[in-house]
Design a protein that fits this description.
Elements: E1 2-4, H1 18-27, E2 30-36, H2 43-53, E3 56-59, H3 73-83, E4 90-99, H4 108-128, E5 132-137, H5 140-152, E6 160-163, H6 169-177, E7 180-184, H7 194-202, E8 208-210, H8 226-230, H9 242-253, H10 257-271
Parallel strand pairs: 1-2, 2-3, 3-4, 4-5, 5-6, 6-7, 7-8
Helix pairs in contact: 3-4, 4-5, 9-10
């Protein structure tokens, strides 16, 4: 059974055919999909999508949404985490983090706001004993700084996943040392993604989990150029692509596909321990 550790199945792109998307994923052997929320308005859609696909969800405020988040966004998150604390499908706080890539968010005020939201959400994760799902875009050092601060204070975050990781090997190992796994998905399938492919090939095996980030980050066989997109062709990613994405990881590491499945599934269960106790209509892990 494959685990897609990061998929926005609640996104509007899936509204027309979400049941069919879920059926294709299950037919491909994707037995669990983790759906991270990105802003308070998506808390309930993420939860409902997790029920619909027999998967899991996370609650958090994405750094790209902090500027337009309601003034009580953090209070809404705290209330939602408390309200659903006993829900076994709630497995993490996420998607949270920092984005130091998008130009519109690089002024000092925007960076400070992102950091304030990130720090507050780490505190909530610690309070609820939940791991976190991190957005890491040219921001690894600052993310690590806050994780180390909490550990030094005796209140460590319970690990989690650094999603779509594309930092340095040193930064990768720093996350691993703090109990994190690193998410690899469609970007890894491009031959030109040399840094990501090198990380996937060389990191300790316990560091690796698989994800799609669907509908985003399509693998190379679904990618559309700007010209194709202008003609109305779409590049929507789906969780059913996960096993084929996994073939790239298997090739890079010299593993069989069953061994890759066993490795990444075990790592996902370690990163998000509540997955082990999910109420399931199918055989458990």
């Amino acid at each position: 059974m494959w685990i897609d550790t990061h998929c926005h199945l609640d996104a509007p792109e899936f509204a027309p055919d979400r049941p069919e998307v879920i059926a294709r994923a299950q037919a491909a052997g994707v037995g669990c999909i983790v759906i991270p929320a990105v802003t308070p308005s998506t808390f309930e859609p993420a939860r409902l999508a997790a029920q619909q696909c027999d998967g899991a969800y996370a609650l958090g405020i994405h750094p790209l949404y902090v500027q337009q988040a309601p003034v009580d966004a953090l209070a809404q998150l705290a209330a939602a985490l408390q309200a659903h604390s006993a829900d076994p499908r709630l497995v993490a706080v996420g998607e949270i983090g920092l984005d130091h890539f998008v130009p519109a968010l690089q002024d000092p005020a925007s960076r400070a706001l992102q950091e304030r939201f990130y720090a507050a959400q780490l505190d909530l994760a610690v309070r609820h004993g939940l791991p976190v799902i991190l957005h890491v875009r040219r921001s690894a050092d600052t993310l690590l700084k806050h994780l180390r601060r909490l550990r030094a204070a005796g209140h460590p975050v319970a690990g989690g996943i650094a999603h779509a990781f594309n930092g340095s090997p040193q930064q990768a190992l720093a996350f691993v040392e703090l109990g994190f796994r690193l998410g690899f998905g469609g970007a890894m399938t491009f031959d030109r993604a040399l840094q990501i492919r090198r990380l996937a090939a060389e990191l300790p095996p316990e560091a690796l989990v698989l994800e799609t980030d669907a509908p985003d980050i399509p693998p190379h066989w679904r990618y559309k150029t700007a010209e194709q997109r202008a003609r109305g062709e779409h590049a929507r990613n789906e969780p059913a692509e996960l096993p084929r994405i996994a073939e790239t990881l298997a090739t890079l590491r010299g593993l069989s596909l069953p061994a890759t499945q066993a490795l990444t599934t075990a790592n996902a269960l370690d990163a998000l321990p509540r997955l082990r106790a999910l109420p399931r209509g199918k055989p458990s892990f």
